[in-house]
Specification:
48% helix; 268 residues; 2 domains
Amino acid sequence: MEWKKQYLKALIEALNPQGDVLQVGFHSHECIQEIQSFELKSHTLIENDPKVLVEARKWAPTVKIIEKSWKNALSELGIFHTLLFHCLSSDQKENKKAKSNVSFHQSNSSSSLHGIGSLAFSQAKETINMVENMFPSLHSIQYSDADIDAFLQMSDPALTDQLFLFLNQLKKSGQISEEQWERAVRQHKKTDEIPEDPLVLFLQHCLQSHMSKGSIASWLSASPTSKHDCPLFFEHIVTHPDVDYQEKMIPLEGREVLVMTVQKLASI
């Protein structure tokens, strides 16, 4: 479909490939060609599907191909400036999760609770926006550690993720310092949740061992759901103190697609 090619082009333009490039998953020859249209130092492709590998070798003769799963291959690799991730299982899981969040009356109690949690998550956004509009002076206030502690202790624990999004905005606007942000994360943020989403696992691993300051990563996704509304991704990536997460909705042929990037801001 033409819109898919336009989406791919928009995503790779946002990624602006340069330096050493890591691509996880072949996806298509258009993907390879778009990346290769930039001036690169090297281009590494991780792909372990035998049928896809035949196509990959045809369209990527100059690309270094590693015939392993990304989980097994990453330990052998170094630092990359640009990373593009494509994992079908991750995308399918995200779409399935998004669909399940629409219904709040399923017979399974855990699904119902998840739907209610997503609704509360959305309502928290609206509340924060309302408070900011009512009290514009909040944008110029400098907050102390005691202010942050009181704010988090008085808040509903179910809305912790959204509250950390608000604190992240305060950090970016200079109203709290980097040290205050890191202190709040250490003292108040949940640490017992284990990431299961392949994208979250990939990004965590790469941020720790395969990205340097300024490195940027993106991924292909068929879902238009904002990552701010995905608690697992929000918890481990969006609110990470050394990460700049950006997303932009782009209209293409009667539909909207989401282009997302993660940039490493400092050594972790």
